[in-house]
Design a protein that fits this description.
about 625 residues, alpha/beta, ABC transporter transmembrane region fold, 2 domains, six-stranded mixed sheet, four-stranded antiparallel sheet, 19 helices
Length: about 625
């Protein structure tokens, strides 16, 4: 799709325009060709979601249109009696059974339509829930490395925002289509029973009305599809400007004028696009109405000739008029459903492709239980490259972590420290080399059970929109270390004491009664979360980055006390905090270049000694 230029306003093509371009360029025959597969897919999905509702929906839809046809046949009988050459009282008496049949058919048609709608209304939220549940179930079960793949990340974002509506949208569109086509067939069948000649007449009436509806609907649909991507972009900007996450940065970087200008530019483009399309839409409607009127006029003329020649009686002709009108409405409904089914089918395919991709990326796990206590961890010659990276994050790395040891990983940013810690913690699997726990290869160990024995205190942790207590106990609930001890050890007791509702305070100011914490306060909550987990292995990745010097010292002292009878893997840039580590590994460009105790590394006068000296000099030099 070329860049759209409209009255000097240009919107460049982006990836999120892809489906809109496909929809706009597709014709009716493309949609009709795809329709059988879409009907099959949505009915299978509905059947899997609720068999009862699916049966009720389909049966009620079919029966409602059958009663439409029966109502037309009963109408013929009523009109025949009313037009008969007998006294009025006799005509009315003779027509009463037919009138009762017409009323009964109308009531039953309405009842079955409502029953079908009720079943559809029940199925739509169930389909959406099933789709969203499957989406989050698979997404939370993929390898963590998948989120480092831009293609997968984009797919998650697109599918989360639109594709979960695909099944419910598709159900609605397919049922509109099916209902329209069944209605058209039922009306045609009823006329065929009344007189064989009436069937080709109704089909003749449907041909020009179908053409007119396609032309009018196509223009309208192209307009909708043409502006859909811009509308989504506009909605994204509106969310950014009206929701909390971006509020501070919008003000800090004075982005308000830019965002408002971009919002207005897209808005003007959409309006002008719509206005430009109005003329085409009106012309299509005019020609459609004209052709439709001519077609109906020809059908009525043919019907009049049949009536004049005595081939049909007046009652049948009057019924045919009603049937022609009903056939036109059914045709419009069916065509509108086809259009909507095609668009919904694109979103549904997005969802299906994502489900298949996420299933293929599912996290692999062994079945062997991890050691009862943290045994020796050996990392032997591992290498790892992120999906979108050109260079490896780790290359031929080997380290050993013995039970009860405090092991430190140090190095500059990007040296591979955090990646190595995540591999040891079972979040990533190396592409080469092995990681063993007590001699058992990590690939053979149940990774979920393994993570139960690991606690992580990270610099980049999640600020859960939960209470303070839940932020600490999440994932462990009431099965961790004593909460009072954890609060004291982490310094989070001072944070909780200042909260209006203590541990029950919601840590999100966007909720009633919620509050926000400073970076240092959040860091204490994160430390408490890790200590509460009370796991044999504690991984600390820059755990004090947001803390002042006094708090940092207190936290490290708490970690040292916590390390008794536990294993600690420490990552930090502040080398004064790793002097007491049993072993220090120095990483550079994804490789281990030095290892040893603090004293041994200082004697070596290598990279570690240089970094430590530079940091200590910053505290001792004046000026």
């Amino acid at each position: 799709m070329a860049d759209e230029v409209l009255d000097g306003l240009e919107l460049k093509e982006q990836a999120w325009w892809a489906h809109d371009a496909e929809v706009t360029a597709s014709g009716l025959f493309t949609m009709v060709r795809r329709l059988p597969a879409l009907i099959r897919d949505v009915l299978v999905l509905s059947w899997q979601t609720s068999r009862v509702d699916t049966v009720v929906m389909m049966a009620a839809t079919l029966l409602s249109e059958i009663f439409t046809a029966l109502g037309l046949l009963a109408t013929t009988d009523v009109l025949t009696q009313l037009f008969s050459a007998v006294p009025t009282a006799e005509r009315l008496a003779a027509a009463l059974p037919g009138i009762a049949a017409v009323v009964g058919a109308a009531v039953l048609r309405a009842a079955f339509r409502e029953a079908g709608q009720w079943a559809r209304d029940r199925l739509e939220p169930l389909l959406t829930q099933a789709a969203q549940t499957r989406l989050v179930t698979l997404t939370t079960g993929v390898e963590l490395a998948a989120f480092d793949d831009p293609d997968f990340h984009d797919q998650v974002q697109r599918t989360s925002s639109t594709a979960t509506r695909g099944p419910s949208m598709l159900l609605w569109a397919v049922m509109e289509t099916v209902s329209g086509f069944i209605g058209l067939l039922a009306v045609s069948g009823a006329l065929g029973v009344l007189h064989p000649v009436l069937l080709p007449l109704i089909l003749l009436a449907a041909v020009p009305s179908t053409w007119a509806s396609v032309r009018a609907a196509r223009v309208s649909y192209q307009v909708t599809a043409g502006i859909a991507a811009a509308r989504r972009r506009q909605s994204t900007l509106q969310d950014l400007m009206t929701q909390r996450p971006a509020a501070a940065e919008i003000r800090s970087y004075t982005m308000r004028p830019y965002l408002l200008a971009e919002f207005g530019r897209i808005y003007r483009w959409v309006i002008r696009y719509e206005l430009r399309a109005v003329r085409r839409q009106q012309l299509a409607a005019i020609w459609g109405s004209a052709f439709g009127g001519i077609a109906k006029g020809l059908v009525y003329a043919a019907l009049g000739l049949l009536l004049w020649s005595g081939q049909v009686v007046l009652a049948v002709a009057a019924t045919a008029v009603l049937a022609i009108q009903r056939a036109g409405a059914a045709t419009e409904q069916a065509l509108h459903g086809v259009n909507q089914a095609y668009e919904a089918g694109l979103f549904y395919e997005d969802y299906v492709h994502f489900i298949a991709d996420a299933a293929a990326r599912a996290e692999s796990s062994g079945s062997t239980a991890p050691p009862a206590e943290t045994d020796r961890i050996r990392v032997d010659g591992i290498s790892f490259t992120y999906p979108a990276a050109d260079t490896p994050a780790l290359t031929d790395v080997s380290i050993t972590v013995n039970p009860g040891e405090i092991v430190a990983l140090v190095g500059e940013n990007g040296s591979g420290k955090t990646t190595l810690a995540k591999i040891i913690g079972g979040l990533y699997l190396p592409q080469a080399g092995t990681v063993t726990w007590g001699g058992v290869d990590q690939h053979a160990i149940d990774r979920t059970a393994l993570r139960e024995k690991i606690a992580v205190i990270a610099q980049d942790f999640t600020h859960w929109p939960l209470s303070a207590g839940e932020n600490i106990t999440i994932g462990r609930h009431d099965s961790g270390a004593p909460l009072d001890e954890v609060l004291t050890a982490s310094g989070a007791d001072a944070v909780v004491d200042r909260l209006p509702y203590g541990l029950d305070t919601m840590l999100d100011p966007s909720y009633q009664g919620g509050t926000e914490l400073s970076g240092g306060q959040w860091q204490r909550i994160a430390v408490a979360r890790g200590l509460y987990r009370d796991a044999p292995l504690l991984i600390c990745d820059e755990p004090t980055a947001a803390l002042d010097a006094r708090s940092e010292h207190a936290i490290f002292e708490s970690i040292r006390r916590h390390a008794v009878q536990r294993t600690v893997l420490m990552i930090t840039h502040r080398l004064a905090s790793v002097r007491w580590a049993d072993r220090i590994y120095v990483l550079e460009h994804g490789k281990v270049i030095e290892q040893g105790t603090h004293a041994a590394l200082m004697e070596r006068s290598g990279v570690y000694a240089e970094m430590f000296t530079l940091q200590s000099r910053a505290y001792t030099e004046e000026g």
